[in-house]
Amino acid sequence: MVSLQRLTRTASRLHAERMTDRQEAEVIPLKPKNKGGRPKGVKRAASKLTQGELATVVLDYARGVQQREIAHKFGISDGAVSLILDKFKPAFAELGNVEEYRKAKANILDSVQLQTLKSMADPEKHAAANLGQLSVAFDVLNKHGRLERGLSTQNVATQTVTISITPTTFADE
User: Is 85 within the bounds of a domain?
Assistant: First the structure.
């Protein structure tokens, strides 16, 4: 593609040399300024982003960074950012509920643990899952519930020993 600047220079040179339309002129092409790589102004393909960069796009958006800023940061189009974020729309829809979930997480785990315990006691449920699978599920739920409450997940005995050292005074004899 011939730039306007190049055409203007060529026309000026031809005029200076008083060439007519019928005479042939040698046009020397200018070297491109961009040597290799993506031409200036062409955006990077979103498919070329690494997994870490994709994660950063999502996290930046979750932190409130505008899509245009994210696109500029990674050299991709605004539309590419939108396509990436479309995959995470269900998760973004739940962002408002995360704090409520955190507050109720231990109780939710206890509720599921209670349901599992009831299933373990119900002979009809044993057809779908064996007792070993249910007991493993119960144990996992129990450990997660204890962790949520800040309790230990194993029976660990601790013993505290307190030693008090008091200085003694020696009297001159």
Answer: yes
pLDDT digits (tens), the chain, 173 positions: 556 666 667 666 666 665 555 555 555 555 555 555 555 555 667 677 888 888 888 888 888 899 999 988 888 888 888 888 888 888 878 877 888 888 888 888 888 888 877 877 777 766 666 777 777 887 888 888 888 888 877 766 667 777 777 766 666 65
The DSSP string of 33-96 is SS-SSSPTTPPPPGGG--HHHHHHHHHHHHTT--HHHHHHHHT--HHHHHHHHHTTHHHHHTGG
Same domain for 104 and 136? yes
In terms of domains, do 71 and 58 share one?
Answer: yes
64 and 83: one domain? yes
